[in-house]
TrEMBL record:
Family: Belongs to the OpgD/OpgG family.
Tagged with keyword Glycoprotein: no
PANTHER family: GLUCANS BIOSYNTHESIS PROTEIN, GLUCANS BIOSYNTHESIS PROTEIN G
Annotated InterPro entries: Gal_mutarotase_sf_dom, GH-type_carb-bd, Glucan_biosyn_MdoG/MdoD, Glucan_biosyn_MdoG_C, Ig-like_fold, Ig_E-set
Keyword tags: Periplasm
A Pfam family hit: MdoG
Protein name in UniProt: Glucans biosynthesis protein G
Protein localization: Periplasm
Pathway the protein contributes to: Glycan metabolism; osmoregulated periplasmic glucan (OPG) biosynthesis
Gene3D superfamilies on file: 2.70.98.10, Immunoglobulins (2.60.40.10)
Domain Glucan biosynthesis periplasmic MdoG C-terminal: 46-531
C-alpha cells in the first residue's frame, strides 16, 4: 500500500536571472492522458487521477528531456525584443464567451527554452490548445514569425480574474519558467514567486530545477468563482502531479495538492518553496550599493507558526556570504515571506511600488510530520536577482517509488499579514554600538499594545546564544507609533586580541531571540536575528 502523507503557501526577467534555466522541453509520453474509450465514441472523463497516473508512469522511465525545439533565433532575443512579442487579447481563451476567467499565453524565447503543452478540459474531455502564430503580435521582430516551426508550444500562460472578462485583462496569476508561478491580490503588483518544488537547494553539488511540462486547465462556467489548473512536473530525480484551485479577491488563494514520485534518492526536498528579493532594508547596517531609495525588497521577513502556537519572526538579510538557517517546525502550521512595510515613503520607488508587493503565506492541510523551515539568504548587489528562498523540509528522506502527497493553501495577501494574536514586529533597526558591539532597536505593534500605557510593566525577554552577551536592555512606549520599543546592545563575550583587531577571525553567528511580556503573559511574537561578531 502506498504511504500517503496527507498535508497541506519585478519583473519577469529578475525572477529568472537568479536561477539558471535548464534546456528542458516537452517529451511526449506514449499514449494519451485519457484512458481508452469504454465504448466507441465515449472517452473516459478526465480527472486529477489521470495526471497522477501519468506522473507515476513518467517516474518509471529514465529522465529524457527534449532539446533543440526552440529555434536559436528566439533564444538569442534580448529582453526588450522578447518583451515586444505580445499576446493578442482577442485571442484569449473564453474571451468571446465572456466567462469569469481568461487565459493568455507566453511565447518561447529569451530564457524560456522549454515548450510546455497546454490542454483545456471541457465536460470531462481534455483537448490540447494548439500553438498559432496568429495569437501573437511580434512587434518589431518582423522576421521572427517565419522562423517559428509548426507544430510548436508555449512558454507558459497567465490568468485573468473574475469580473474583468468584459473589459480589460486583469492578471491575477502566471505560470512561466521551470515550476515558477506568481499571483497578486487586488490592487497589487507582482513581487515574490512560488515554485512547485525545490530540490537540493544550496547544496555543494548544485540545485536541480523541476519544471512543469504539461498543463490541464478546467474550463469555468459563467458562475465559477475559481479556476482549476493541473500540472505535470518532471526532473532528473522525480515527477509530480499538481492541482491548483485558484480564487482571486482581496486575498488570492490557491488550494494546492501535490503528489510526488521519486526516481532516485534526493538529499533535500523543499515543499512549497518561496522565492523573493531583499537588497537592503531598515535593518541593513552597511549597504553594498549607493541608492536613493531608503529600502529595496519584495519581502522583509520570514514568519513561522509552530505547532505549539508560537509565532516566530525573522527579518530578512543580504549577507556577505551564503547564509542558510533551519528552524525546527514539526507539523508546521504555517510559514511565509511577508512584506509588512506598506509605506511608500520607506521605498520612494514610483516604478517598482514595493509597498504594493504581495505577502505569501503557506498554510498546510493536515500534519506534515517532522521537519524544519529553511531560509536561505544569498548575497546580491542588484535588485534584479531573487536572493531569498524559503521552504519546508521533511526530516526523513522521501522513499523512491512511493507516492507522497502534500496539501496546502497559498494565500497571496494584500497586506503585511500581522496575524499573531497580540503584538508583531513592525521594524528592526541595527547600528554600531562601539567596541565590536551592535545596537538593536525592535518596534512591536498591535491594537492590544496600543492600549497599554505607562506605567504598565511591559518587559523585554532577550536570549543570546554562546559567543556574545546582551547589555543596555530597555523597553519604552513609542508615542509615535502607539506600540512599544525594545532596545539592547550585543557584544562578543570577550574583547578581540590585538592580532584579531588587525586580522579578524570569521566567527559563527550568534542566535538572538526576543519578545515582550507583562507579568507571565506573552504579548508578542518571537523576534529572531543572527548577530555576527
Amino acid at each position: 500500500m502506498s504511504h500517503i502523507i496527507r498535508s497541506p503557501k519585478r519583473a519577469l526577467r529578475r525572477i529568472r536571472l537568479l536561477l539558471p534555466v535548464l534546456v528542458l522541453l516537452v517529451q511526449a509520453l506514449p499514449g494519451t492522458l485519457l484512458a481508452e474509450p469504454a465504448s466507441a465514441g465515449e472517452p473516459e472523463g478526465f480527472s486529477r487521477q489521470a495526471v497522477v497516473d501519468k506522473a507515476r508512469l513518467l517516474s518509471e522511465a529514465p529522465f529524457n528531456p527534449a532539446q533543440g525545439e526552440v529555434p536559436q533565433a528566439l533564444l538569442d532575443l534580448g529582453f526588450e525584443a522578447w518583451h515586444d512579442i505580445t499576446f493578442r487579447p482577442e485571442k484569449a481563451l473564453w474571451k468571446k464567451e465572456r466567462l469569469p476567467f481568461q487565459v493568455e499565453f507566453f511565447h518561447p524565447g529569451l530564457l524560456y527554452d522549454r515548450l510546455v503543452a497546454v490542454n483545456v478540459v471541457d465536460k470531462g474531455v481534455a483537448e490540447p490548445v494548439p500553438f498559432d502564430r496568429a495569437m501573437f503580435d511580434y512587434g518589431n521582430n518582423h522576421t521572427l514569425p517565419e522562423q517559428v516551426p509548426s507544430p510548436f508550444g508555449f512558454a507558459g500562460f497567465r490568468i485573468g480574474g473574475p469580473g474583468n472578462a468584459s473589459k480589460h485583462f486583469h492578471e491575477i496569476a502566471s505560470f512561466l519558467g521551470a515550476s515558477y508561478f506568481r499571483a497578486v491580490a487586488s490592487n497589487q503588483v507582482y513581487g515574490l514567486s512560488a515554485r512547485g518544488l525545490a530540490v537540493n537547494t544550496a547544496l555543494p553539488d548544485g540545485e536541480e530545477f523541476p519544471y512543469f511540462k504539461e498543463f490541464w486547465i478546467e474550463k469555468p462556467t459563467r458562475k465559477s468563482t475559481s479556476l482549476t489548473v493541473h500540472a505535470l512536473l518532471d526532473s532528473k530525480s522525480l515527477t509530480g502531479a499538481y492541482t491548483f484551485v485558484i480564487q482571486d479577491g482581496k486575498t488570492t488563494t490557491m488550494d494546492v495538492t501535490a503528489t510526488l514520485f521519486l526516481r532516485m534518492p534526493v538529499t533535500k526536498i523543499g515543499i512549497a518553496p518561496l522565492t523573493s528579493m531583499f537588497l537592503f532594508g531598515e535593518n541593513t547596517d552597511e549597504r553594498k550599493v549607493r541608492d536613493f531609495r531608503p529600502e529595496v525588497h519584495d519581502s522583509d521577513g520570514l514568519l513561522i507558526k509552530n505547532d505549539s502556537g508560537e509565532w516566530f519572526w525573522r527579518p530578512l538579510d543580504n549577507p556577505e556570504n551564503l547564509d542558510i538557517n533551519a528552524f525546527q517546525a514539526d507539523n508546521v502550521r504555517g510559514f511565509g515571506l511577508i512584506q509588512r512595510d506598506r509605506e511608500f515613503n520607506h521605498y520612494q520607488d514610483l516604478e517598482a511600488a514595493y509597498e504594493r508587493r504581495p505577502t505569501l503565506w503557506v498554510e498546510p492541510v493536515g500534519d506534515w510530520g517532522y521537519g524544519h523551515v529553511e531560509l536561505i539568504n544569498i548575497p546580491t548587489d542588484q535588485d534584479i536577482h531573487d536572493n531569498i528562498v524559503a521552504f519546508w523540509c521533511p526530516r526523513d528522506a522521501l522513499p523512491v517509488g512511493v507516492p507522497q502527497t502534500y496539501e496546502y493553501k497559498l494565500l497571496w495577501y494584500n497586506g503585511g499579514f500581522t496575524h499573531p494574536p497580540l503584538g508583531y514586529v513592525e521594524s528592526t533597526r541595527a547600528g554600531d554600538a562601539g567596541d565590536g558591539g551592535q545596537r538593536f532597536v525592535v518596534d512591536f505593534r498591535s491594537k492590544a499594545l496600543n492600549l497599554l500605557l505607562p506605567p504598565s510593566k511591559v518587559e523585554g525577554v532577550v536570549t543570546c546564544g554562546a559567543g556574545a552577551v546582551v547589555s543596555e536592555q530597555h523597553v519604552e512606549k513609542n508615542e509615535h507609533t502607539g506600540g512599544w520599543r525594545l532596545s539592547f546592545v550585543v557584544r562578543p563575550d570577550q574583547a578581540p586580541s590585538a592580532l584579531e583587531k588587525v586580522l579578524p577571525k570569521r566567527k559563527p553567528p550568534v542566535d538572538l531571540r526576543a519578545f515582550l511580556k507583562i507579568n507571565d503573559t506573552t504579548l508578542t511574537e518571537t523576534w529572531n536575528y543572527a548577530y555576527r561578531p
